[in-house]
Amino acid sequence: MAATAPATQRAELDVYRFDPEKESAPRYQSYQLDLAPHTPVLTALLRIRTELDPTLTLRYSCRSAICGSCAMVINSKSRLACQTPVGPELARHGKIVIDPMRNQPVLRDLVVEMSPFWGRYRKLEPHLIPDPEHPMPEGVATSMTPVQLERFKETPRCIACGACYSACPMVEADPAFPGPMALAKLYRFVVDPRDGATKRRLTSVQPGGLWLCLRCHLCTEACPKDVRPSERIMDLKEMALAAQGGTENGSRHALGFKENIRERGVLNEFKLVRQTYGLGEMLAQVPYGLKVYRKKPETLRSPKPIEGRDEVEKIYEALDDTEGA
Amino acid sequence: MKLAYYPGCVAQESGKELDLATRWVCRKLSIELVDFPNFSCCGSGFIDEANPTLNTAINARNLAIAEKAGLEILTVCSTCQGMLTLANVRLKDPAVRAKVDGALAPIGYQYRGTTGVTHLLKILVERVGPKALEAQVVRPLKGLKVGAFYGCHLLRPQNEVGSESAEEPHQFEDLIAALGAEPVLYRGRVMCCGFPALFVKEASANRIAAHQIDDARAHGAHAIATPCPLCHISLDTFQPKAAKEVGHALDLPILHLPQLVGLALGAGPAELGLPRHMVDPGPALARIGAVAVPT
C-alpha cells in the first residue's frame, strides 16, 4: 500500500541570529516553510540552511538524540531540536521561536561556547578513581550485581547535551554551582562499587555547591534522556549528610529543619535561622530582620506545638534514629 | 464543599495574611474549612533532603488524619501541595509503604491511601469554576495586569505532582482573567523563586528572585500573584534585599492568590492582611480602586 504524505502547514520560525565579531546586538530572523507536523525542528533548520539561508549556523550531528549536539531553546524551553516535532509547538504557540542555549556565551547564531559547562563538570573528577587498597584485576571484566547496577538509576543515559545546564536558574545566578549534569555524573561515580573516592567526593561536593540546588526540577523537565538530575542531586544530599553531617549552611539547614519539626511538629522560623547560620551571618541578619519583624511579629515567636506532637516524635524514633541520620 | 484545611507552617506564622485571606475567600464562596490542630509540617522539601522516608511518613500521618475524617485536603502552598502529593505517590512503592506502615502502626494510625490533596487554585478553577467566580466579583480587577507565579512544586516533577502542563500551565491565568484582571505571560511564571537557597547563599537566591520580578515587570505586570507562601517570602519579604543585590529598584507588589481573589470579591486590604507585606501593594490597589490613589 502506498504511503500518503501527511498534510503540511505553513510554519513561521523566528531564529536568533548573532555574529558577535561583526554585529553589535542579536536579532531575530523570520523564515517561512511548509512543514509536516512530525518534522523535527532540526530538520526545519537544516531546510532553512539548504533552501533559504546558507549562513545560518548551528551545531548538530546524529539527528537521533544520541550525540547531544543540537540542544537549543525552542519556544523558551531548553531541548534537543532533533527530538522536538514542529506540530505541537505550532499548535501551542502559533510559531516557533528558536534561541541558543542559555547560560553560555554565543559564538554565532545557535552555537554556544560550552567550555564553562565542561569546566564545572571537570572540577568534579568525572572519571573512575580506583581504590588503591582494592585494585581491579587486570584484564578481567568486573561484574556487578543487579542491585549494584540498579543504583546507577538513569545516569548512564546522559548525553551531555547541556539542556539541563541551560534550564537551571542557579547556574545562571551562581558560578559556584556545578550544574545539574555535573552533579548527576558525580552521583554516577559515588554509587559505582569500583570507585574508591566516594568519601572524598561526598565531602568535597558539600562546599562545592551541592546545596545550591533549588529542587526546582527544571533540569529534570528539560532532560531529553530522562536522567532526572534533580532527583540524583537529592540522593547526593542524603548521602553527603549521612557521610559527614552538616558542614555548610545548606546541610545545616536541612538537618536543622528536620530537628526543628521534631520539637513542635510545626516550624519555629526564628530557631531555624539560628540552626542554619553561624554567629556572624546571624548578626548580619539583624537589621533587616527587625524591619520584617515590624510587619510580621510572628517571626520572633515560638509557635504552639501541634496536638499529637508525641506521635511525630515516635515517627522520628522509628525512622530517623535508626537510619543513621 | 467541605475540605480539610492544611494551612502549612508559614501561613500560621510569618505569612498569617495568607491564612486570613484564605478564610475570607472560602467563607465568601461557602467552602467549609475544617481545621486539624494535629496536622504537622510537610517537611518543606528540607526533611526530604535529609531523610526521604521520614518525610513520607510524617505526611502519611497527615494524610491519614484527613482520611479518618473522610475529607480531601486543601492546601494553600505549592510546596505543601507537592510534598503531600509526593507522599501519596511514594507510598505506592511496597518497600516505602512497609517502612511507613511500620512507623504509623505503633501510634495508632493506618493510611489506606485514599486522601486527595488539592491546592486552592485548582479548587477555584475546577470546582467553583471561572463562571461562578466571575458572578461573585463585585470589584472587577479591570486595568490590573497580573503575572501568575506558580511555584515549582505545584508543577514539577510533572509525572508525580503536576496536575496540568508544567511547561504551559494556564489555570492561574484563567483565574486572573475571571477576576477581571489581565494575565501577563512571561517566562518566569514557571521558574523558581530562589527560596530554597535563601538560607544557603542569600545573594544568589536574591538574584534569582530579582530575575523573575524583572521579567514580570518587563512584560507589563503591575503585580505578581502566587499560590505559594515560600515564593512570597522570596519575592516580597526579601524583595528590598533583592533590589539592593541587583542594584536597581524592583517595586513590584506580590499578592497571595486568595488576596487577589478576595480583592475582586470585595474584601478590604486590611481584611486580607495586605499591610503586612514588605513591598507596598498600594500602587496595584489604587489601580482597582481598593485604596485611594496616592497623591
Q: Can you put this structure into words, describing what you see?
A:
The complex is a heterodimer of chains A (325) and B (295). Chain A folds into three domains: 9-112, Beta-grasp domain (Ubiquitin-like (UB roll)), CATH 3.10.20.30; 115-133 and 145-244, Fumarate Reductase Iron-sulfur Protein, Chain B, domain 2, CATH 1.10.1060; 262-316, no CATH class. In chain A, 42% of the residues lie in helices and 11% in strands. Chain A has helices at residues 41-52, 86-93, 115-122, 146-150, 163-167, 169-173, 180-190, 198-205, 218-222, 229-244, 249-264, 269-276, 279-295, 309-319; strands at residues 9-17, 27-35, 71-74, 77-80, 96-99, 106-108, 111-112. Chain A has a five-stranded mixed sheet with strand order 2-1-5-3-4. In chain A, strands 6-7 form a two-stranded antiparallel ribbon. The longest helix of chain A has 17 residues, at 279-295. Chain A is globular and about 70 Å long. The mean pLDDT of chain A is 94. By secondary structure, chain B is α/β, with parallel strands linked by helices. Helix content of chain B is 48%, strand content 10%. Chain B has 15 helices and eight strands. Chain B is globular, with a radius of gyration of 19 Å.
Q: Which consecutive residue ranges of chain B, at least 5 long each, have pLDDT under 50?
A: none
How many domain regions of chain A?
3
Give the CATH topology of the largest domain in chain A: Fumarate Reductase Iron-sulfur Protein, Chain B, domain 2
Helicity of chain B, in percent?
40-55%
Low-confidence stretches of chain A: none
CATH superfamily of the largest domain in chain A: Alpha-helical ferredoxin
Got a strand count of chain B?
Answer: 8
Distance between the termini of chain B: 43 Å
Shape of chain B: globular
Radius of gyration of chain B: 19 Å
The portion of residues forming beta strands of chain A comes to 5-15%
SS class of chain B: alpha/beta
Tell me the major beta sheet of chain A. Answer: 5 strands, mixed
Say what oligomer this is.
heterodimer
Can you write the helix and strand succession of chain B as a string? Answer: EHHEHHEHHEHHEHHEHEHHEHH
Mean model confidence by pLDDT of chain A: 94
Our count of helices of chain B gives 15
Task: Give the strand line-up of the largest sheet of chain B.
Answer: 2-1-3-4
Q: What fraction of the residues of chain B are assigned to beta strands by DSSP? A: 5-15%
